[in-house]
Structure to design on (208 residues):
């Protein structure tokens, strides 16, 4: 049996980690085989690339270099972790994936969608079965998380950048309406949890 590939996307501070933890608990309670992984990262090589990308000291990194590093980490992640888990029939939960490259690199950095599609050609053949876009505007998200993490190069980019990221996500969601489901995260975390579980039950787990 083939597994299912589910990704989580959204701006910084929307409460993504908390919601992923709820889904993990949901799967554990039902004995569903799954793995939880993240981007940039996952296997050792991709985690090493993550350190380079996020290091606040790497101020001189060009946007193109950044985009290529995300794409490189992603190919390794797919080959070493995601594809084998799906082949083994597992559910793969992934914290961020290619839509982050569309929102952050194509739209917010301005590299354009064509370039991101090209350098991510491998991942474009490996799209998720379902992407949950945790929808909350960056102003509200930053308030929720109490400001930016100063050791993280991307978080330090400021509100204007993150507004572009958000606009990028909305554009990508319009482009892949069947795959990407928007989840309104403006309410309490338990309300968001119920919305996510309802989508998962309908789209992936029919009846469990
Ligand atoms: P992380 O600390 O994991 O952020 P979060 O907890 O918000 O998920 O850092 C990952 C950062 O990398 C985040 O700012 C989004 C960014 N990113 C991209 O710009 N492009 C990508 O393709 C991916 C996967 C992440």
């Amino acid at each position: 049996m083939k597994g299912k590939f589910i990704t989580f996307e959204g701006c910084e501070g929307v409460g993504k980690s908390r919601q992923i933890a709820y889904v993990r608990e949901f799967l554990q309670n039902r004995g569903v085989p799954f793995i939880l992984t993240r981007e940039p990262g996952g296997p050792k090589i991709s985690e090493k690339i993550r350190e380079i990308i996020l290091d606040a000291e790497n101020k001189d990194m060009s946007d193109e270099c950044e985009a290529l590093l995300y794409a490189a980490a992603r190919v390794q992640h797919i080959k070493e972790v995601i594809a084998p888990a799906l082949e083994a029939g597992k559910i793969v939960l992934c914290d961020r994936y290619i839509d982050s490259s569309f929102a952050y690199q194509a739209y917010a950095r301005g590299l354009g969608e064509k370039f991101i599609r090209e350098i991510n050609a491998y991942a474009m053949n490996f799209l998720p079965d379902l992407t949950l876009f945790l929808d909350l505007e960056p102003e509200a998200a930053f308030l929720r998380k109490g400001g930016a993490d100063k050791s993280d190069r991307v978080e330090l980019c400021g509100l204007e950048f993150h507004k572009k990221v958000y606009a990028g996500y909305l554009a990508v969601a319009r482009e892949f309406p069947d795959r990407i489901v928007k989840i309104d995260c403006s309410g309490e975390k338990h309300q968001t949890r119920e919305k996510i579980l309802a989508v998962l039950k309908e789209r992936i787990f029919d009846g469990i």
Summary: The CA atoms of residues 59 and 198 lie 42 Å apart. The first strand starts at residue 4 and ends at 10.
